[in-house]
Design goal:
Elements (H helix, E strand, L loop, with lengths): L3 H5 L2 H19 L10 E9 L7 E8 L3 E10 L4 E14 L2 E10 L10 E10 L3 E9 L15 E9 L1
Antiparallel strand pairs: 1-2, 1-8, 2-3, 3-4, 4-5, 5-6, 6-7, 7-8
Length: 163
């Protein structure tokens, strides 16, 4: 297993570590704040922000006070065409800010993401009728999980509209 020093020596490692710390802090603080987000079905549109910026994704979800289950798909010209995912996240709120940590299954492996089984991290902000969010899919090679597999991770940012 890689040491924290080895993980933090790369830019990708520092970014990933910062995201994990932000999610943990938001989740810990959220035990003291009432959720601002209403339960319900939502549709999301997002774009991949780091590897293939032409990739667009669509998600449909059901989000409750402390969880979200979703199905999504995207088409990438650089990484094997259409990828589909299904996942579930445990979600916590800190006022209008939310963070989620969960599991996701991708239907194919690519040169960007070398495993079907992944985790997901989501951070976002809830407005009155919509949410802005960023969601990361990865299998954690920085934590020595399948270190021999590609792990660029998918990174989507976008908007969610609830019904």
């Amino acid at each position: 297993m890689k040491s924290i020093k080895e993980i933090l020596s790369s830019k990708r490692g520092r970014i990933g570590f910062a995201i994990v710390i932000a999610v943990v802090v938001i989740m810990a603080l959220s035990f003291f704040i009432k959720p601002a987000h209403a339960d319900g079905v939502g549709l999301s549109l997002a774009t991949e922000i780091t590897h293939d910026k032409r990739t667009r994704a669509g998600f449909i979800d059901y989000t409750g006070s402390f969880y979200s289950v979703y199905y999504g798909q995207w088409n990438s010209n650089e990484f094997n065409g259409t990828t589909r995912t299904a996942g579930a996240e445990y979600r916590r709120h800190f006022g209008n800010i939310f963070a989620g940590l969960g599991v996701a299954v991708l239907d194919q492996t690519t040169a960007l993401n070398g495993t079907n089984d992944n985790f997901s991290l989501t951070v976002g902000y809830s407005f009155k009728y919509a949410d802005a969010f960023c969601r990361h899919f990865s299998h954690g090679s920085q934590l020595n999980i399948a270190p021999d597999r590609a792990n660029g991770g998918w990174n989507f940012c976008g908007g969610r509209w609830g019904f």
